[in-house]
Write a structure and sequence with these properties.
Blueprint: H1 2-30, H2 38-58, H3 69-90, E1 131-142, E2 148-163, E3 166-175, E4 187-200, E5 203-211, H4 234-238, E6 244-255, E7 258-265, E8 295-302, E9 308-318, E10 337-349, E11 352-363, H5 366-377, E12 386-396, E13 406-421, E14 433-446, E15 449-460, E16 470-478
Antiparallel strand pairs: 1-2, 1-16, 2-3, 3-4, 4-5, 5-6, 6-7, 7-8, 8-9, 9-10, 10-11, 11-12, 12-13, 13-14, 14-15, 15-16
Helix pairs in contact: 1-2, 1-3
């Protein structure tokens, strides 16, 4: 008799939990009326729980020949787990760090990875002001050159909740610690400042200063989120991290592990492209950005397999708004088309962690663009019509994951070539066809603090202009 009473209590507990989970799921899907007082909503919920408790106490938990109490409990546990999983997958989370807040639940797939700056909770009180930040201090020494100690980045992130469905997030960055007008030195930039309008898990709206959703690092560039003192070359040269501009768009969770972002953004400026840094100098960065032709960018990610994240990004835009009038020498209107494709993957197996990325971009009318810029600048910028980069990275977590201390040696191979394919009549500059072998390790005394050291073996295809090896030490943290 006592055993049956215990079983009934367990069944009642599970049914009560199932009811509460269902109420929570329904509330997150439909959204509670914003004007209804919290005390009134709590009282109504408590009354429903009391009625359900009374009905369950009056009922009998019978053991039928077809289903034992244990089987029923197992079925209810499974149902509760499914509903909890559904709630988490449908929870509208502001997207990031870089840093967007969603950041970085997926930046690294290991338990010891640093989390993203905390997003505003969905049900938080209106008007709350969440904040976060991250910083980096670097010591860099290129072979044959003087060492440099640089407080590279100081970033603060602030948010605000206007209502459960309207939220704000921002990121302000100071680079190199000191800013002096008119002198080469640091800079201050607003890398993110956007409003999110949450409608449904699969469709939400966003507008403001946005990070382009291209590649792994551009949206997830906090120092504990990647290995190595400096960001990968592919993610700074081919994909010009940090890449942000004014724009608007939609994002959401499609279920079954798929999520997406689709934005219209201000395009890069072709007059800033170069042979060495590709399209990096063309970023408008929200400073009186010209949008005669709106750029389109998007990303799809898949996390349907445990410990695996796959992503693919696109960017397309016309970039010749500085060349509005037909060039008398060329006899045509110059408006180069930029198209970029990227694919990446991250996977963790036990203590091993793997990461890889491939990116390629194409620029049309590069022959005409080079000739036009030569007239303006007095030299030929030798911009390529195709640029590409890729890397593979392997890391190993030496200590078990239950330890607070984390020691992670890693190795990364990179190839990045901003002179991959040239227009007819132009020759590639071999010093910009580069390879990097990075060997180092990270020590994390805390998941949010990373001490880093690495050595980079640098190579290029030039026999005349060598590229020096580099030694780097750094510390990065976020909160």
């Amino acid at each position: 008799m006592r055993r049956r009473t215990t079983r009934r209590r367990s069944a009642f507990t599970l049914l009560l939990a199932l009811f509460l989970v269902t109420i929570r799921a329904t509330g997150q899907e439909t959204g509670a009326p914003p004007g209804r007082p919290i005390e009134e909503r709590l009282s109504a919920l408590e009354e429903k729980v009391r009625r359900l408790e009374k009905q369950l106490k009056e009922s009998r938990v019978e053991v039928t020949p077809d289903e034992t109490v244990e089987a029923r409990l197992e079925r209810l546990e499974t149902r509760v787990a499914e509903l909890l999983s559904r709630i988490e997958s449908q929870r509208p989370v502001p997207a990031q760090p870089a840093t967007e807040p969603q950041a970085v639940q997926a930046s690294l797939t290991t338990p010891s990875s640093a989390p993203s700056p905390p997003p505003p909770p969905v049900g938080e009180t209106m008007g709350t002001m969440p904040y976060a930040g991250y910083m980096e201090l670097h010591l860099n020494q290129a072979r044959g050159q003087a060492s440099q100690l640089d407080f590279h980045r100081f970033i603060l992130l602030f948010g605000h909740t206007f209502s459960p469905r309207i939220k704000f997030w921002s990121e302000v960055e100071i680079e190199h610690a000191f800013i002096e007008p008119g002198e080469e030195g640091g800079e201050i930039a607003v890398e993110q400042a956007y409003l999110d309008f949450f409608m449904r898990p699969e469709l939400n709206f966003r507008a403001g200063i946005l990070l382009a959703p291209v590649g792994i690092i551009n949206e997830r560039h906090e120092p504990p989120a990647f290995h190595g003192v400096e960001r990968p070359f592919v993610d700074t040269v081919i994909i010009p991290t940090t890449w942000f501009d004014a724009g608007f768009g939609i994002h959401g969770d499609l279920g079954r592990g798929f999520s997406y972002k689709l934005y219209g953004m201000a395009p890069p400026d072709a007059s800033g492209f170069s042979a060495e840094e590709g399209i990096r100098g063309g970023r408008q960065s929200g400073f009186l950005s010209v949008v005669n032709d709106l750029g389109v960018t998007g990303r799809v990610e898949y996390r349907g397999v445990r410990r695996l994240t796959l992503g693919s990004s696109l960017f397309a835009a016309n970039t010749g708004f500085r060349f509005q009038n037909p060039n008398p020498r060329l006899g045509l209107k110059l408006n180069p088309r930029l198209s970029l494709f990227e694919f990446d993957g991250r996977y963790r197996w036990r203590r091993f962690e793997l990461r890889g990325e491939f990116a390629q971009l194409w620029i049309s009318q590069t022959k005409e663009l080079n000739l036009a810029l030569e007239q303006q600048l007095g030299f030929n910028p030798n911009i390529a019509r195709s640029q590409l980069g890729y890397y593979g990275e392997a890391a190993y977590h030496v200590l078990p994951f239950h330890k607070t201390l984390d020691i992670v040696p890693f190795f990364r191979f990179e190839r990045f070539n901003t002179q991959h394919r040239m227009a007819e009549g132009f020759l590639p500059l071999p010093q910009f066809d580069r390879t990097a072998y990075t060997l180092g390790f990270s020590v994390r005394p805390n998941p949010d603090v990373a001490l880093k050291l690495d050595y980079q073996f640098m190579r290029n295809r030039s026999d005349v202009i060598p590229i020096p090896n580099r030694f780097n030490v750094g510390i990065g943290w976020w909160f």
